[in-house]
Amino acid sequence: MPFWLVGTVVVGPLVGGGENALAGSAAHQFGAYAVALPLAALAGLFPVARPLAVGAARALCGAGADRFAEGPARSRAARLRTACWFVLHLGVGALVSGASLAVPPFAVALLLTPLLPDVRTYLGVDGSPLAAVLLPPAGLGMLLALAAVSAAVGALLAGRAVVLLGPAPADRLAAAERRAAELAERNRLARELHDSVGHALSAVTLQAGAARRVLDRDVEFVREALAAIEETTRRTVAELDGVLGLLRQDGEAGGEPSGPALDAVRGLVSRSGVPVALEVAGEPGTVPAHVSREAYRIVQEGLSNALRHAGGHPVSLWIAVRGEELEITMENPLPAAAPVVRPGGGRGLRGVTERAVLLGGRAAAGAHDGVWRVSVLLPFGGGR
């Protein structure tokens, strides 16, 4: 209607400006309609037109929300497609709307001509039997035709809406990038929770089991085990708060874990619940912060695996800084019996590999010469 009213202002002087727009001649009204279509196309080129059009199409066309593009139209092709939809929607809709206003009263008048002489006079038809027989079916046919045309136009618009307002290749790429970023963030948080909480539970379980076995014989050992459990849980709660803090950022960019790094490895080893021979070569203080944090989690997961599967055997841990690389190697003797595997398997080694790959490094784990060895190489220049 706004575009059509502007069209009446343009066309009015050409066909006689004194006419009322709604009661004017057919030339006046259809001329205004012809002027309104380019104006609608121009409005459809604005980026904000697509979200408005998509909102209307979702409500009216019954198509799934995932079949429409999200956000304003940025590319030239997307704006042109939105403009085409806008012209089709408003242009065809205007014709159906006009017919819906004009046809029903006329059709009802035809239905009533046999009964009301005043209606026959208004329509200028005679009262012959032929008119009485033919005019009512004509009125009914006009109503049925209007319903059929309306249904056909609705189906046409519903089909074209998905084509013209659906995601373009650039939209699909942007959506895929958003999903990949969300998935990467979820995986990162899952690794943080798994490594932190999983290690703590393994250590606490081992300490509690050892304390229970010597409860009546070695009170001092029990006291040390309880102190280790207290320290482990306190540290894990602090780490858990840090990870939950990332979740509370609600998708804000730039969030980085603020958990422990390589400088906390000695404390981790001392509270691990398993004997660890630690050797450090180079200067761990020169390791970039993001690599240092990931290295701590890798060591933590390696110790957790030793706690779960190595039966308390000693662990050898080497950490070496060589040039622009950090190398981590952990070894422990293979247990005499095969370890009990959780249903579905664990996720620790997969997490270690993911951490290494995301930093541009590599990781390997397996049995070698009677020991279980985990080897990780982390370059300093890898991506965050």
From TrEMBL:
Its EC number is 2.7.13.3. Residues 185-250 form the Signal transduction histidine kinase subgroup 3 dimerisation and phosphoacceptor domain. Gene3D superfamilies: 1.20.5.1930, Histidine kinase-like ATPase, C-terminal domain. The chain crosses the membrane at residues 30-49, 83-112, 132-158. InterPro entries: HATPase_C_sf, Sensor_HK_TwoCompSys, Sig_transdc_His_kin_sub3_dim/P. It comes from the Bacteria. SUPFAM superfamilies: ATPase domain of HSP90 chaperone/DNA topoisomerase II/histidine kinase. It catalyses: ATP + protein L-histidine = ADP + protein N-phospho-L-histidine. GO terms for molecular function: kinase activity. Keywords: ATP-binding, Kinase, Membrane, Nucleotide-binding, Phosphoprotein, Transferase, Transmembrane, Transmembrane helix, Two-component regulatory system. The keyword Translocase does not apply. This is histidine kinase. It comes from Streptomyces zhihengii.
